[in-house]
Design a protein that fits this description.
The chain starts with a strand and ends with a strand. The chain has a single domain, classed as Endonuclease/exonuclease/phosphatase (Deoxyribonuclease I, Chain A), CATH 3.60.10.10. The strands form 3 sheets. Strands 3-4-2-1-14-13 form a 6-stranded mixed β-sheet. It has a 6-stranded mixed β-sheet with strand order 5-6-7-8-12-9. The chain is globular. Helix 4 links the parallel strand 7 and strand 8. It is built from 7 helices and 14 strands.
Length: 253
């Protein structure tokens, strides 16, 4: 199976670009989207011309904000939204599909914000989400993918010193949250295959020609339960795919 994750920064906007051609070219068995910025009916409408896939989505209470989706060739056994916590289930950030041999969870982790106003919320969210994943793992292995809104190590962003403990995405509290996923047994698939690969980024600011200069951050991930890493054959980032400020990331299992 080929699994792809992509923060599309608005499903309705990306659908007007080369999105459907990109899906044909990438040919995922499952495509997980973040930041759809649309209600469930709007996601369905934007993807109505997509053939051969089952579409599931989870939208925020607030319209035009956040949102996740799973698009799968194979119909999952079940699909369910959120993490069973009312405080964190208002923004459509989590969607889980159960397949025969694993759970697949797509997540759009809250951003701590330009003035770090949501950093405390983000920390609590990380802890609650990890609890949710470990609960799933009691039944079968888990693949979690999406925009985790953190560069885990200095190698994962172009200017680590300038950003460390100053800006959202590279605060120590956020790094600690990512460390906790790893300590809990989840494997960062890209770093498993490419522990020392530099300048491998999945997000670039729209400002200052950052993408052309490859001044970016790796904040989009596929994490898998330790028991599944032996089944992962490949992990990749696809910077050649445009349409959003993020590019797709993928694994093959």
């Amino acid at each position: 199976m080929k699994l792809i994750s992509w923060n599309v920064n608005g499903i309705r906007a990306v659908a007007k670009k080369d999105f459907f051609e990109q899906i044909k070219r990438l040919n995922p068995d499952v495509l997980c989207l973040q930041e759809t910025k649309a209600q469930d009916d709007q996601v369905a409408e934007a993807l109505k011309d997509l053939e051969g896939y089952h579409v599931y989505s989870n939208s925020a209470v607030k319209k035009g904000y956040s949102g996740t989706a799973i698009i799968s060739k194979t119909k999952p056994l079940t699909v369910f939204s959120d993490i069973n916590n009312h405080e964190y289930d208002q923004e459509g950030r989590v969607l889980t599909a159960e397949f025969e041999d694993f759970y697949l969870t797509v997540v759009y982790v809250p951003n701590s914000g330009s003035e770090l106003k949501r950093l405390d919320y983000r920390q609590a969210w990380d802890a609650e989400f990890l609890r949710y994943l470990k609960k799933l793992e009691e039944k079968k292995p888990v693949i979690v993918c999406g925009d985790l809104n953190v560069a885990h190590k200095p190698i994962d962003l172009a200017h680590p010193k300038a950003n460390y403990n100053k800006y959202a995405g590279f605060m120590q509290e956020e790094i600690d949250g990512m460390d906790n996923y790893i300590k809990a047994g989840f494997v960062d698939t890209f770093r498993y295959f490419y522990p020392d690969k530099e300048k491998a980024y999945s997000w670039w600011s729209f400002r200052g020609g950052a993408r052309d200069r490859n001044v970016g951050w790796r904040i989009d991930y596929f994490l898998v339960s330790q028991s599944l890493i032996k089944n992962v054959k490949k992990a990749a980032i696809h910077p050649e795919e445009y349409g959003s400020d993020h590019c797709p990331v993928s694994i093959e299992i």
